[in-house]
Write a structure and sequence with these properties.
mainly alpha, 3 helices
Length: about 100
């Protein structure tokens, strides 16, 4: 019995199921899950999704922020550094007497 940890009704979920079923249908009918055969099916699946397995790694994954996230983070960091510099400058000025 399967205990899916993803939503099979999404495009991504249906692609995962398609890959699993392809492996089950194409490979398990023979002598079981041979590593080379699994890699062949996986490479074909990537090709169907438009991924070139011979190309460089694809960016913007979960560990790589998108440009929008990077820009927002840079603006936030710049703002903090600017405020820190302003605060340091204010502290270095002589105190006003009342």
């Amino acid at each position: 019995m399967h205990n899916l940890k993803f939503d099979p009704s999404t495009r991504e979920g249906s692609q995962i199921i398609r890959l699993f079923n392809r492996i089950k249908d194409d490979i398990e009918d023979t002598d079981g899950w041979n590593g080379g055969d699994v890699v062949d099916v996986l490479c074909e699946w990537f090709k169907d999704l438009g991924i070139d397995v011979d190309a460089d790694a694809i960016g913007s994954g979960p560990d790589e922020p998108t440009a929008a996230v990077t820009d927002a983070r840079d603006r936030f960091t710049t703002g903090i550094l600017t405020r820190k510099a302003q605060f340091a400058a204010a502290l270095s000025r002589p105190a006003r007497r009342r």
